[in-house]
From TrEMBL, chain A:
KW Hydrolase (keyword) present: no
PANTHER family assigned: ALDEHYDE DEHYDROGENASE-RELATED
Any Pfam family hit: Aldedh
Highest taxon in the source lineage: Bacteria
Lineage: Bacteria, Bacillati, Actinomycetota, Actinomycetes, Micrococcales
Protein name in UniProt: Aldehyde dehydrogenase family protein
Source species of the chain: Agromyces indicus
InterPro entries given in the database record: Ald_DH/histidinol_DH, Ald_DH_N, Aldehyde_DH_dom
The keyword Oxidoreductase is assigned to this record: yes
Keywords of this entry: Oxidoreductase
Automatic annotation (TrEMBL), chain B:
Pathway the protein contributes to: Carbohydrate degradation; 2-deoxy-D-ribose 1-phosphate degradation; D-glyceraldehyde 3-phosphate and acetaldehyde from 2-deoxy-alpha-D-ribose 1-phosphate: step 2/2
SMART domains: DeoC
Family: Belongs to the DeoC/FbaB aldolase family. DeoC type 2 subfamily.
GO terms assigned for molecular function: deoxyribose-phosphate aldolase activity
InterPro entries: Aldolase_TIM (IPR013785), DeoC (IPR011343), DeoC/FbaB/LacD_aldolase (IPR002915)
Record's protein name: Deoxyribose-phosphate aldolase
Keywords assigned: Lyase, Schiff base
Organism: Agromyces indicus
SUPFAM superfamilies, per database record: Aldolase
Entry keyword Lyase: yes
């Protein structure tokens, strides 16, 4: 007996919940061959605003967690990704028209990068921080502190590995993230959100928007409560205007990257979303 | 801003009740009021909340909300310094935008009234004239559990210190026990204590604490009772009990105010307080007021929001409308 297909509607991920777009809009996600794949929510500027409110609420707890704890939580996500490997592979096959082997390679790469970043959580401060020599009986210590709320335009030509490469480094240092997924390949982003929702990541730490980056990015760039914006996937947008808008509120900006090496894992990506705090402390109290 | 005189209030009550305001008469009257259609009420409130208020209407609404706010601090940890910074914010809500209106009043505990009056200086006065009033909670706020003497002394002290408005709590225990006469007498006595030596009187807001009255029927009865006893305003909540102000409860109280106005011609104010934190919610209240009692009520002597964090959200929305981009909590005060 033939069975009626049950297509999944992919929703947004804001503050740990999966709401539809406030605007009620959706758009069709198509397969590589042009066939219908799924409906995804088309986020509006108000969804972006809600996501930022959720992220702002989550920064304190996430940044305040110990680095060791953050590492454990991030590693746990890699475990869950591994458990859903088959689902991600099937999604990438459908969406990108990739072969099974290519899709599997992308998922493996994404998981490996996630594990790599998770490992840095409790080691990054040792590398990026410093005990500065000063001319007096003081400890003078510099430590990287999270920037706060980071908006990310994810790489547009990749389902999973681009998204992971952009989101994971921002999380490592203790930032909360609002990420606009790839417009053409948004499904893996929402599946990743489902992984995050069932992991130990506090709600609001990662918020995923799907829809048109061209529409949402200007609101993120000009939003006064966003501390940094990663334009890695904004190469096809008017990213210079975005950079100008971001400068109005003194945001940190990472510029677009193109090609297969976009957002390759580096310590610089972690450092990009940190601020250096330097403290003085007396060496002895006699 | 002076409230209605006690004598006329009492006469009016006697005329409406057709007898002395004792437990039996009040019970007969209040229980004779038709019950509330809870489903209909909630549906009506929900429908009023779906109005889309945009652009120029929204700008008007935001400014109106600010001018209707009773900026409130009611914490055990209140200090004179905190009251002064509250007053500073009441006078200049957004230092970056001089077109921002002032709030209607600051609402503090009775012992903080002198600091508020002092900090307001020449701006202390009637919100209908663009000045800022000082409201004080009294009568053993928030529980209302003390003797009448203490409640009256509490009220008289706040008035003597310069409070223009008294927010009293009713004795919910007595109300729920059916001792309506006692509640009536207490409101009437507090009203008397609001009188100043020069014959004028502080305006009296009667807090029903709807979260403790449990049913809509009780809210409707308590609203009638408070108005009969001489309250100039009826206020939903202390803000210390959940649920505090909700749209259906406020709608219900507005309907009582509307009916009273039709019956006697007197205009009673309404103040939802507690739990209204977002501009969007506050705009729903404006719509409800305009649709229930009329736009005429949207002025400081007939409608107030009891709020603290609401003001910041309204300022953020205002900044969004002025600058074209979203603002953030870094651009308003922490309070």
């Amino acid at each position: 007996m033939s069975r009626l297909a049950v297509p999944k509607t992919y929703k947004l991920f804001i503050g740990g919940a999966f709401p539809r777009s406030e605007s009620g809009r959706t758009y069709e996600v198509v397969k590589a061959d042009g066939g219908f794949l799924a409906n995804a929510a088309k986020a509006s500027r108000k969804d972006a605003r809600d996501a930022i409110v959720a992220a702002r609420g989550a920064v304190g707890g996430w940044a305040g967690a110990t680095a060791y704890n953050r590492g454990q939580v991030l590693y746990r996500i890699a475990e869950l990704l591994e458990g859903r490997r088959a689902q991600f592979i099937a999604e990438i096959e459908d969406a990108e028209g990739a072969t099974r082997a290519q899709a599997a390679a992308q998922v493996d790469e994404a998981i490996d990068r996630w594990v790599w970043y998770a490992g840095w959580a409790d080691k990054f401060a040792q590398v990026a921080g410093n005990a500065n020599p000063v001319a007096g009986p003081y400890f003078n210590i510099s430590v990287p502190e999270p920037t706060g709320v980071v908006a990310i335009i994810a790489p547009q030509d990749s389902s999973l590995v681009g998204l992971v490469s952009a989101v994971a480094p921002a999380l490592v240092a203790g930032n909360a993230v609002v990420v606009v997924a790839s417009e053409r390949f948004p499904l893996s982003a929402i599946s990743l959100a489902e992984v995050l929702a069932t992991s130990d990541v506090p709600k609001g730490v990662v918020n995923v928007l799907t829809g048109s980056p061209a529409e949402i990015a200007p609101w993120l760039a000009s939003h006064a409560d966003v501390n940094a914006i990663d334009l890695v996937g904004a190469g096809d947008l008017d990213w210079i205007d975005l950079e100008i808008a971001a400068a109005d509120t003194l945001k940190r900006v990472l510029r677009p990257e193109q090609g297969p090496d976009a957002a390759a894992p580096t310590l610089d990506r972690i450092a990009a979303f940190t601020e250096t705090k330097t403290v003085w402390h007396t060496k002895s109290l006699r | 801003m002076s409230g209605t005189s006690l004598v006329t209030a009492r006469e009016r009550a006697l005329a409406v009740l057709g007898g002395e305001p004792d437990d039996a008469t009040l019970r007969r009257y209040l229980h004779g009021i038709a019950g509330v259609d809870a489903v209909g009420l909630e549906q009506r409130a929900a429908a009023l909340g779906t109005r889309s208020i945009k652009t120029t209407s929204k700008k008007w609404a935001l400014d109106r909300i600010i001018s209707l706010v009773d900026l409130t601090t009611l914490e055990g940890a209140d200090t004179p310094g905190k009251v002064r910074s509250l007053v500073a914010k009441a006078m200049v809500p957004d230092p970056a935008d001089a077109t921002t209106p002032r709030v209607a009043a600051v609402c503090v505990y009775g012992d903080m009234v002198p600091y508020a009056v002092d900090a307001l200086g020449a701006l202390h006065g009637d919100p209908d004239d663009g000045r800022i009033a000082v409201a004080a909670v009294a009568t053993a706020f928030p529980s209302g559990r003390s003797s009448l003497e203490i409640k009256l002394a509490d009220t008289a002290e706040a008035v003597a210190n310069g409070a223009d408005e008294i927010d009293m709590v009713i004795d919910r225990g007595a109300f729920l026990a059916g001792r309506y006469g006692l509640v009536f007498d207490q409101i009437a006595a507090v009203k008397e204590a609001c009188r100043r030596p020069d014959g004028t009187s502080a305006s009296l807001k009667v807090i029903l604490e709807t979260g403790e009255l449990v049913t809509y029927d009780n809210v409707r009865r308590a609203s009638w009772l408070s108005i009969l006893a001489g309250g100039d305003f009826i206020k939903t909540s202390t803000g210390k009990v959940q649920p505090a102000a909700t749209l259906p409860v406020t709608l219900l109280m507005l309907e009582v105010v509307r009916d009273w106005h039709l019956m006697t011609g007197q205009r009673i104010g309404v103040k939802p307080a507690g739990g209204i934190r977002a501009s969007k919610d506050a705009i729903k209240y404006l719509v409800t007021v305009a649709e229930t009692v009329g736009e005429e009520w949207l002025q400081p002597h007939l409608f107030r929001f009891g709020a603290s964090s609401l003001l910041n959200d309204v300022l953020l929305q205002r900044q969004k409308m002025t600058t074209g981009h979203y603002s953030g909590p870094d651009y308003v005060t922490i309070d």
